[in-house]
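Weekly structure sync, notes
Attendees: PL (lead), two postdocs, one rotation student
Agenda item 3: pending single-chain targets
PL asked that the sequence for the first pending target be pasted directly into the notes so everyone works from the same version. It is reproduced below exactly as submitted, 232 residues in total.
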Amino acid sequence: MFEIKNLTAGYSDESAAIHSINVQMPSSEICAIVGSNGAGKTTLLKSIMGLIPSKTGSIIFDGEDIAQWNSEKISRSGIAYVPQGRMIFPYLTVEENLLLGCEVRKMNLKKAIELGYEYFPDLKGIRNRKGGMLSGGQQQQLAIARMLVVEPKMILLDEPAEGIQPNVVQEIGRILQKVASELNVTVLLVEQFVSFALNLSHSYYFLQGGEITSGSKITDDNRKGIIESIKL
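Predicted structure, written out during the meeting:
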């Protein structure tokens, strides 16, 4: 369903932050891009979303090359993006944030809200609380739920474990696995928290200095060894 071929991208015409990136992901699976700060992980996600121009290469989604599409067209094609920092609206309630997520598509608002609460039931009890009053974990759940209500085919997550308590991180991972398997949503996440990312993923790529240096399928047999081998 999703493939990146020889992608090079950067913030200026003179330099590139990521070089010759190749990634393959079957639909309804979770793939982790792991790497340290400055490795190019956020640049990769922004390139996929059309927020940073691709210099060379292709990004194949649902059989089409979206590398030169603008971000609005990419979003409407079915890719949702949860950026680092979550970017929720602090002065709107939880439910108002979810409703804003629905604005990008013509859809049944009641059904969409119920879907968000089904996968993130903790949000229902605080639906009238302002976004700025939520904990970091609650904000992350809201940010993912806001993307979920638009019924995406694919979700991009930038550092979803950042600044969140370990028990909440594990709950978010469990929910992401349910979303992928039950809703047939493909999930691409970039993360520094290696054990969290690889324990919930079907495959991984290690990004270092703007280049993919390793990657493979993850199974129950090789998962522990892969986690122990990656040093950030």
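Discussion points:
- The chain has a mean pLDDT of 89.
- Helices lie at 41-48, 71-77, 94-102, 109-119, 136-148, 166-183, 194-200, 223-229.
Action: rotation student to compare against the earlier draft before next sync.
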